[in-house]
Amino acid sequence: MKAVILAGGEGKRMRPLTSTIPKPMLPFFQKPVLEYIIKYLRNQAITEIMIITNNSCPSIQKYFQRGEQWGVSLQYIYEDKPMGTAGCLKSLEAFIYDDKPLFVINGDIITDVKISEAIAFHEKNKSLLTILATKVKNPKPFGIIDCEENGRVRRYLEKPSIGEIYSCLVNMGMYIIQPELLQFITNKYECDMSHDLVPLLLSMNQPVYCFEGIGYWADIGSVSQYKQSHFDVLVGAVNVKLPISEVLPGIIIGKNVVIEEGATIKSPVFIGDRTIIKTGSLIGKNTIIGSDCIVTESVTIDHSIVWENVYIGPSCEVSNSIIANDSIITKKVKIRRESVIGENCEINREIAPEMLVKPYSKLTN
Q: What is the dihedral of CA 107, 109, 115, 121, to 10 degrees?
């Protein structure tokens, strides 16, 4: 089986983090999100992969090249203009040269769901399109699915209002498709899988099925879920291999890390290579600190993500927030919950809750 990764999204909900980095390349424990997806596919014995992205994301091909390092073969398609999650698939006709099904996955997913049973289900039912799905408590941000006992989809609605919700079974952004599906797609205008293609197929009574996946799944297209998925990995809720191993239960520390006497580390925590934690500082649970950071004296950090090469000055407090690469937080600064600091910022005053700071900003009193 071959796979396609849809990696052309703008990541508007992830700004200011995606103001300088394409969404699929956002760091997740110091590696791009897309790298975890590629490893996930390889672990499912899928090694021929096409990445569909846009012309503003050359960093993807520059980083992954042909994929040999990850044991896969990568090809790339660049869109001149957005064609939608279904419209972009029309360009795959040259990539598909047999009648075998194709696995399609969005480029902002963290999952450990095994797809072998889904493939067998797809083939058994002679499905044209199989949507992998899962149950969630709040289905509003997703496409909801109503299906028959055998899994055939009856109704589908993308991002329903509260009054429209008829199911908690939602689209995972993972699909198995037959090559003949492409004949229902046009490349003349933007065509979305959820808004356009699925409703079209249902109206034509085409065989669309739903398979409920078992395992961890998260769409990390929002800042809140991006953070939560980091925390989920720290507590072992998802089966992914991190670039650094545990030194103690729940404590993951890289090479050449300096933790001075008098500093306190509470698990679960991740600290990247060559980072320095100075005396009197408290690194609380659910904290991820990247490589080459300096956390000076009497700093408190909890439930937060600090990317690489960040300086945090004396007596600062960082809670439930994200600080991107190459930023400087001076002394006695408080960064409150749900705040996001973009790359290359200098912060010299308190940051209010839920504040989004654009890259290259300099904030003073």
A: -80
Q: Find all residues with CB under 8 Å of 164, minimum gap 6, and list them.
A: 157
Nearest residue to 238 (alpha-carbon basis) of 218, 262, 210, 261: 218
Would the pTM of this model clear 0.85, i.e. be above it?
yes
Neighbours of 80 (CB within 10 A): 7
Which residue type does 269 have? V
Residues in Cβ contact with 355 at an 8 Å cutoff, skipping those fewer than 6 apart: 336, 339, 340
Beta bridge partners of 27: 32
Q: Which fold has domain 2-226?
A: Spore Coat Polysaccharide Biosynthesis Protein SpsA; Chain A (3.90.550)
Amino acid at 51: I
pLDDT band at 132 (very low <50, low <70, confident <90, very high): very high
Q: Residue 96: pLDDT above 80?
A: no
In this predicted structure, the answer to whether residue 237 has a pLDDT above a threshold of 80 is yes
- Strands 27-28, 31-32: pairing is antiparallel
CA dist 115 and 102 (Å) reads 12
**Is residue 87 over pLDDT 80?**
no
- CATH architecture under which domain 246-363 falls: 3 Solenoid (2.160)
pLDDT (average), residues 190-196: 81
What pLDDT, on a 0 to 100 scale, did the predictor assign at position 225? Answer: 93
154 versus 83: which is more confidently predicted? 154
CA distance 232 to 255: 23
